[in-house]
Design a protein that fits this description.
With 396 residues, the protein is α+β, with helices and mostly antiparallel strands. 63% of the residues lie in helices and 10% in strands. The protein is built from 11 helices and 6 strands. The protein has a 6-stranded mixed sheet with strand order 4-5-3-2-1-6. The protein is rod-shaped.
Length: 396
């Protein structure tokens, strides 16, 4: 097994295992002067001296739980080694550096200040008793200062990592919320589409079915046309509902039919005309490309407006007018029915929402001269204008 894999397993096993590994590594470093050959004039490496080095290492196992107490214990054990035995010297104060690093990383500012003063005094006394060499003193102060700096850098690094993790969690939460909001908007859009389809189809079918029995007795040919209109309306509703339900399928590869476009408006007008209404359909101005989403919105707005006429207006005539202006498309549906009864149903609310989705506005109220009802929707022309399509002045 590679060394990197061993280190990863130890680091992943918890702080206590890491502290034990650090203590073992420090003990191995402290053992080096006792196992390498020594010159005859140097002090012998005795078991007593080696035992005292182990005594300085043992407190490191608890360095996270009590960093200040561990450092004091390490300094005390090091002083005992210096004053009681004449053993091999160490090239670096390993135990003191590890304990000092831990204090810098985990202790509060007042404790760190006191420990810095205490450690500085300990270094001065140790060097003064040992060699009284200025170079050794400066080197010892430097390595302890480096240990303190690394401890503070570890704090900064942990804070940075926490900030990065918090930022990642916030981004994940934001993405999840945005996904949920997008799903909610899509569900609302599908609900509006299904409302428009069902409301329009059922209204026309009810009107035709109610007129059928009368037509059978007085004008059989009209009864046959009414039944044909019911059949055609039902089939069209089924096709559109199948299209909408396909969006909800888990199998995203299922074939989908396109959304309705402006070219299908004449067919919509003809189906509504079959209910007995006298409908005029007019398009003025040079038609410009609107985009499929906008064309589907215009279709649904006209469909909902005509559905409201069939269900509520008791009108004889309806006028559908599309005006392709230079800056906006204006959709107007006007009837001569009973007028505005107050309040706003789901249909009118849906018309306003569809217009607002494309930066447009919807105005509803009495028709010209206060008679009937009018729906007027304005959708800005935001796309680049190209050659006009040949649909100017169409009437039906």
């Amino acid at each position: 097994m590679r060394i990197q894999e061993i280190g990863t397993r130890v680091l992943g096993s918890g702080p206590r295992a890491v502290d034990l590994l650090i203590a073992l590594l420090v003990q191995a470093a402290m053992t080096m002067p006792f196992v390498v050959p020594r010159a005859p004039e140097l002090p012998h490496a005795t078991w007593t001296a080696y035992g005292l080095t182990t005594l300085t290492v043992l407190p490191l196992v608890a360095r996270r739980r009590a960093p200040v107490a561990v450092l004091i214990a390490v300094l005390a054990a090091g002083g005992l080694y210096t004053f009681t035995v004449d053993g091999p010297g160490q090239p670096l104060p390993y135990t003191g550096l590890v304990a000092f690093y831990t204090v810098a990383e985990l202790s509060s500012p007042p404790k760190r200040t006191g420990i810095v003063v205490l450690t500085t005094l300990a270094v001065l006394c140790s060097v003064g008793i040992d060699s009284n060499d200025i170079r050794e003193l400066l080197f010892s102060l430097f390595v302890f200062a480096a240990a303190y700096a690394f401890g503070r850098l570890a704090v900064t690094r942990k804070a940075y990592l926490r900030a990065v993790e918090d930022r990642a969690r916030q981004l994940e939460l934001t993405h999840r919320i945005e996904a949920e909001q997008a799903a909610a908007r899509e569900r609302a859009r599908i609900a509006r589409e299904m409302h428009d389809i069902l409301s329009h189809a059922v209204s026309l079918m009810i009107v035709q079915a109610e007129a059928g029995p009368v037509a059978v007795r007085t004008a059989p040919e009209r009864a046959e046309a009414a039944f044909d209109a019911i059949s055609e309306t039902g089939r069209d509703a089924m096709v559109q509902l199948r299209r909408m339900l396909g969006v909800l399928r888990e199998n995203e590869s299922a074939p989908r039919e396109p959304q309705p476009v402006l070219d299908e408006l004449p067919g919509l007008v003809e189906r509504v005309r079959g209910s007995g209404l006298e409908i005029s359909y007019e398009v003025t101005g040079p038609a410009r490309p609107l985009g499929l989403a906008v064309e589907a919105t215009v279709y649904r707005i006209v469909q909902e407006a005509l559905t409201n006429v069939v269900r509520h207006a008791a009108a004889d005539t309806v006028c559908v007018h599309l005006d392709h202006g230079t800056r906006a498309l204006i959709i107007t549906v006007t009837d001569d029915g009973c007028g505005f009864a107050g309040g706003a149903g789901m249909g009118l609310i849906g018309i306003g929402e569809r217009a607002a989705a494309h930066g447009g506005t919807a105005d509803t109220g009495p028709g010209p001269g206060g008679r009937g009802f009018r729906v007027r929707v304005t959708i800005p022309q935001t796309r680049t204008q190209t050659e006009p399509r040949t649909r100017t002045g169409v009437k039906s």
